[in-house]
Amino acid sequence: MKFLMLLLSLMVRINLGGCESFVKEAEYQQYVDKALVAYDILDSETGAGNDFLGWKTLPSGTPESLLKEMEAVRDCWKEKKVDLVVVIGIGGSYLGARCAIEALSHSFSKQLSSKGDAPEVVFAGNNLSEEYLAELMDLVAERNAACVVISKSGTTTEPAVAFRIVKEHLEKNYKDASERIVAITDAKKGALKTLSNQEGYKTFVVPDNVGGRFSVLTPVGLLPILLAGFDVREMLEGAAEMEKALAVRGEENPAVQYAATRNLLYSVYGKKVEVLVSYNPKFQYLGEWWKQLYGESEGKDGKGIFPASVICTTDLHSMGQFIQDGDRVMFETVVSVENANRSVIIGSDKENLDQLNYLAGEHVEHCNAMAQLGTKLAHIDGGVPQIELSIDRLDEKNLGALFYFFEYSCGISAYILGVNPFNQPGVEAYKKNMFALLNKPGYEEQSKAIRERLEK
Ligand code: PA5
Q1: Residues with CB under 6 A from ligand 1
Q2: 400-424 confidence digits (pLDDT tens)
Q3: Rounded to an integer, what distance in angstroms lies between the CA atom of residue 386 and that of residue 333?
Q4: Positive or negative CA dihedral for 310, 316, 317, 321?
Q5: How far, in Å, CA of 69 to CA of 57, rounded?
Q6: Which end of the chain, N or C, is more open, meaning fewer C-beta atoms within 10 Å of its C-beta?
Q7: How far is the CA of 70 from the centre of ligand 1 (A)?
């Protein structure tokens, strides 16, 4: 049965068996046909937002010279013995890098005595919390710091505020401050570009045709990932393999299958929430990156699947209750890593007071896999369809493939839904009110109107 097909040769594999009891095959076929139409729109670059499709060829098209330029920054900061890099950015200007660094790092790298060669990477400019910034500066003050400031528009308030504060510290404390700042922004316009030109910062360009949430494979994601000590060539290689695989049109294309299934569940079965599930806590920020990608791309014109995420088994003891038993509005997409990078075997205990001897000799990951299988069956029994995606192991190559898979599927999915995947008009509403309330020059009229509204 085509519907159940597992594509074993691909880096990202999809299994739709967990949806079988919920949807009829004819309906699935109908949505595959819709997905193929959407695929053609994406492929021929004739859909809404088609001037933002530069991300499609980033894996195969990134020049060696760009990688060398990024490595030169790493080597220069290594010479300066930089041990802390503050990456400033919000939304698509930080989530990809954070996702990759958290997924690939040792869970306790900060606490381990041997810290390795690479500087610690921390993130700022993704909130307006004064306490967060004050505490960030406590850390910056103790360390040999440098900064990567990322803003495509070059005008976003959150990163601009954080950058002003970090920049002031660097200028006060280092003679070579301008060599400790790298800006990633538009090629020509924006306040950050003007500032960089004036101060002589090293800059990298966010291509005009790549939107923030599709920018993880540009310097926006690659530079912080590289600075954190990871192999971005491998990441691009994995993404390039996926680029090649997804270029094959057909109903066996996993991006077509994923986009078709989620839209079928949403449109026909009223499953308005998609929960991205992982059984590896290192994927917490994969959930955050994916939520932005899908939430900002699809949630518009009164439409869209609400993206949520959980980490299991952790969240089975919190959100698990709702997923099993609450309002039946959701389906799950489980991202599995088939082979653990490390091994821990449960020992035997003479007393067996904890009654765990039945697990003696087992890998912990075996328990995790059984928890995952048991949960799958329970959730299906509870009315939650399940899409399964899997990769071989958690490394740069597989992560690159996963990034590209989700981006491509997102483009197809949004076109099935009938929205422009590449704009985000809704993000402006809060900004206008915030600027009016902060008395930003140019917002005088809105400021008056909003204050009158609040006084009522
Ligand atoms: O996906 C997007 O375009 C947004 O999430 C942006 O990345 C985010 O708003 C940050 O914008 P900028 O890079 O212009 O500061």
Answers
A1: 90-93, 151-153, 156, 159, 211-213, 296, 424
A2: 999 999 999 999 999 999 999 999 9
A3: 6
A4: positive
A5: 20
A6: C
A7: 21
